Amino acid sequence: MTADITNVRPASRGWFSRIGAQNVSLLISLVVLLAIFGALRPDVFFTPRNLINIGLAVTILGILAMAQTVVIVSGGLDISVGSIVGLSTMVLAVALQETGSIPLGILACLAAGLLAGAVNGLIIVYGPVNAVIATLGTMSAFRGLAYLMNNGNSIPIVGDGLRLLGTGTLLGLPFAIWLLIAVMAAFIVFTRETIVGRNIYAMGGNPTVARLAGIAVHRYQVGIYAMSGCAAAIAGIVLASRTMSGQPASGSQGLELEAITAAILGGCALQGGKGTIVGAMLGVLIIGVLNNGMILTSVPTFYQLLAKGALLILAVIVQERQRTRNGE
Amino acid sequence: MSPGRVSQILSSFGAVWIAVAGLYVVSGLLSPAMFSTGQVINILQVASFLGVIAAGQTIVILTGGIDLSQAGVVTLTNIVAASLMAGLSENIPLAVGMVVFLALAVGAINGLLVAALGITPLIATLGMNSILFGAALVYTGGAPSGGTPASFQWVGNGALFGLPVPTLFWIALTFLLLVMTRKTVWGRRLYATGANPRAAGMMGVSTLRIDLSAYMLSSLTAAFGGLLLTAYTGSPSLGIGNQFMLTSVAAVVVGGAALTGGAGSVLATMGGAVFITELSSFTNIIRVSSGTQLVVQGLLILVSVLAYRVLSMSRRTGSAI
Questions:
Q1: A243 and A98 in contact (C-beta within 8 Å)?
Q2: Residue numbers in B near A138 (CB within 8 A)
Q3: pTM score of the predicted model
Q4: Which of A34, A73, A159, B182 is such that its CA lies 20 to 30 A from the CA of B223?
């Protein structure tokens, strides 16, 4: 028994220190936001239903932001993810139409995302092309492909199998939230506990040293963008399960920019080498709570945009301050 | 003339002009309508909006930055100008003055965020874009109002010496910026800052001032582009600027500027803007689906970046010989 207790305590302290000073400030901001909106709308805000709503609203953004975090940590940027989301919903809809099998449809969708991401990686590595330009180009190209799949029209998805993913619940929580939690767990383990994950941090911190240390930087980059594409496809599946259709234009409403915003808010440095999955998720939650709270307190849509832009700039200023104070 | 010398001339003038001419011939052969004078003038008129906006983007990209808030400036300009003019000629000076003031303020804030606070340009200007678009929504309450008087619409639709007025403005602006970047001390400092900010700083260049002036110019040309567009359409629209967020960067990149800074030219960006407009006009004429158009646009960006890389490599080997 005593052995158990001594084991537990350092582990929990380690868990706390692992959150990091950066994330503590995010956590505080999140708590402050929760307190403000909770006080303004005590009747609605903290109801389980509303909290689940917030979770559902951030599922897609969360998945994209976590993948974007890994890309940014490696020193890159992927602004084509929004287009890949749209493309993957189309692939899913077509595959379901052709095969009628949900596993096959999902497989095709994930493969399409993986392939699109790998194309990004290959262009960036073997062009070599600056990541912003490369994914700017493929953002347009992937969107075009999505339009070409059905002359720019959406494709309805019939059958209840996929709908279940969008509406079903397990232990009171919707499937989509479980999926988000699973993806988050996978990303946390990947970035913290695997050698590949740690190598990605080394690579973003200093690519030359990483290469000299024997990290296959090029292969890593292709893999990271392929992973980002695959994550976008997962987000596409969630989206398609809600709209029950393949929408070529979906994901085009600045989804990639919101994902980048969340990652930056969560402590990613665009120079690479810095950023955490937990931080990104805190960033996503802050955005989600802010959106939800502003709607509940009837802040006009117009001011919501203003608030988001100001938040992004403020977050980066605070971070920059912290970095200069740390003498980096 | 050695191949090295040829590519040197090409890079100072903009190799993109060869692509512009090539595309013109190819598209004209495939669809003779492209050869008509009317169509050429039409392309030059439409290209001038993108061209004016991208001219300022070039200056920012020369410093190694990027300005994604131009879209917001265009939209806000359109909204504010139309509302202040309210269809009356006597309000034009007030509206133009207000728009220019707003643009300079936005550019100054961008410049300070980037140069004084050290925020990554992509993020700073992206946040600013969101703020500007939000401000346009707040200003209008979602329902834009006002309009331009007929005398102002001449600026967007009129013609002088057979050329559309926006095109003439575009040519004059490009020429002015060309002289500023190539013949003045400020221009040399601009290129030096973009090529190596640290070295430029050590040489005594105030990189803060250079960045500040670059972002202010970029906002200003976005406002000019917005005014020309407002004169062209004659009415306010909240979505008017969106398309320019990335196309203005694309025009600069297609023109051959390096996103890392220090390399590029406003003349080449002019070619980039013509090329992009020419291509979309051609794909419109031959009735290609919008999907194919998007794919072509994306490939264009990638192909042009790769082509410039090959070109610069041949220049390096050429001068070595």
A1: no
A2: 298, 302
A3: 0.80
A4: B182
